[in-house]
Amino acid sequence: xxxxxxxxxxxxxxxxxxxxxxxxxxxxxxxxxxxxxxxxxxxxxxxxxxxxxxxxxxxxxxxxxxxxxxxxxxxxxxxxxxxxxxxxxxxxxxxxxxxxxxxxxxxxxxxxxxxxxxxxxxxxxxxxxxxxxxxxxxxxxxxxxxxxxxxxxxxxxxxxxxxxxxxxxxxxxxxxxxxxxxxxxxxxxxxxxxxxxxxxxxxxxxxxxxxxxxxxxxxxx
Length: 221
Hints:
The protein has about 220 residues and is mainly α.
């Protein structure tokens, strides 16, 4: 007596659950936006030479959902393992391409293989750096700004919030009294305080010290 054959399921078909009142078109549209389904479709398209063409698409999406849940709970072991595997694979690619570059007899082929080898080596190093940052996150450092200048320096940034108004008034008065010396030299006193020198103003000619005394006799002996 032969047993009835079990109905075969299509590994490329996704099993979608619909909520009450949701149409098939709405379920398909929402499924197209899920990261797990998007990623599963890309993996299924590229992994044909790894596990064959019979990989179940729904199982790929379910496995990705499990990974998402672990990462959400703070378990990064899957990501760490992924980075270690990628860095090792890239290192293997680098070694293989470098060995092939050595066997080339023409410079153009040698440069092509060696360029690809060095790119794989750089990607491996970047992957290792990402793994180190994941395992040991860098701590942000906050450094206060230091104003360093030669000679006296005064910075007025206005009154601080909550500062005493009397202290702010005293500081402002002190700043107004601290007139630089080069500004004082521009003030022309001469009996007229507050008058500022103006080198551009034309001055009237004056006749002063007109009396000239006779010079004494010069002895040329």
